[in-house]
Amino acid sequence: MSNTSSYIEIKDLVVKYGKVEALHGISLNVKKGEIVTILGANGAGKTTLLASISGLIRPSSGTILFDGQPIQNIDSAEIVKRGIIQSPEGRRVFSTLTVWENLLLGAYTNHDKQKEKDILEWVFTLFPRLKERLKQLAGTLSGGEQQMLAIGRSLMGDPKLLLLDEPSLGLAPLVVRQILAAAKEINERGVTVMLVEQNAVAALKIANRGYVIEVGRIVMDGEAHALMHNPEIQKAYLGG
């Protein structure tokens, strides 16, 4: 479901925390309609990369183009309005609000009530558990349900590009399969997906392509199928 033009194109991206350089000139691209996974160990720079795209961190240098327009110097609220929405690592649901209230917060940039209603129905189709728990406080949900809610909340903003940061973290294998099957379904509905994952096997099964980050640098990239069968990847990430 991809075409040839880059939807997100990152060129020579450098990000620093104070004097410490976290990303050392990263370049990558994601085509419209793809699922691209970013693999790497903890602390490799995956979350920093996503935070740069979503405007939460300002890069020191380099460019981020979204649909041909530079976005590296615009604020996160404007980036959300343009259709880039992040489902953060650690879920970060509003624990003292209900499932319903969390979902409504995700729709704050969506002023089309009919579209909001349609997306809500789609979220309930993806995650029927959320419909069952609508009046429940988000903090009382299981980890898997909270992850479903975090993704559902992201979808309420009607993303063109969905940034999924470690959606499988801390979840049981069965729930991981459900979450990643939902990511595939979201993509099939027309949403481009960037998926940051430590679970390389699960991520590569649903992705079109992948990039491997080590200590702030991209050390490998390619088609998901080829990466899955690459001996270096198998040794480092797949327990081979």
UniProtKB/TrEMBL annotation:
<dbReference type="GO" id="GO:0016887">
    <property type="term" value="F:ATP hydrolysis activity"/>
</dbReference>
<dbReference type="InterPro" id="IPR017871">
    <property type="entry name" value="ABC_transporter-like_CS"/>
</dbReference>
<keyword id="KW-0029">Amino-acid transport</keyword>
<dbReference type="InterPro" id="IPR027417">
    <property type="entry name" value="P-loop_NTPase"/>
</dbReference>
<comment type="similarity">
    <text>Belongs to the ABC transporter superfamily.</text>
</comment>
<feature type="domain" description="ABC transporter">
    <location>
        <begin position="8"/>
        <end position="240"/>
    </location>
</feature>
<dbReference type="Pfam" id="PF00005">
    <property type="entry name" value="ABC_tran"/>
</dbReference>
<dbReference type="InterPro" id="IPR003439">
    <property type="entry name" value="ABC_transporter-like_ATP-bd"/>
</dbReference>
<keyword id="KW-0067">ATP-binding</keyword>
<dbReference type="InterPro" id="IPR003593">
    <property type="entry name" value="AAA+_ATPase"/>
</dbReference>
<dbReference type="InterPro" id="IPR030660">
    <property type="entry name" value="ABC_branched_ATPase_LivF/BraG"/>
</dbReference>
<protein>
    <submittedName>
        <fullName>Branched-chain amino acid transport system ATP-binding protein</fullName>
    </submittedName>
</protein>
<keyword id="KW-0547">Nucleotide-binding</keyword>
<dbReference type="InterPro" id="IPR052156">
    <property type="entry name" value="BCAA_Transport_ATP-bd_LivF"/>
</dbReference>
<keyword id="KW-0813">Transport</keyword>
<dbReference type="GO" id="GO:0005524">
    <property type="term" value="F:ATP binding"/>
</dbReference>
<dbReference type="GO" id="GO:0015807">
    <property type="term" value="P:L-amino acid transport"/>
</dbReference>
<dbReference type="GO" id="GO:0015658">
    <property type="term" value="F:branched-chain amino acid transmembrane transporter activity"/>
</dbReference>
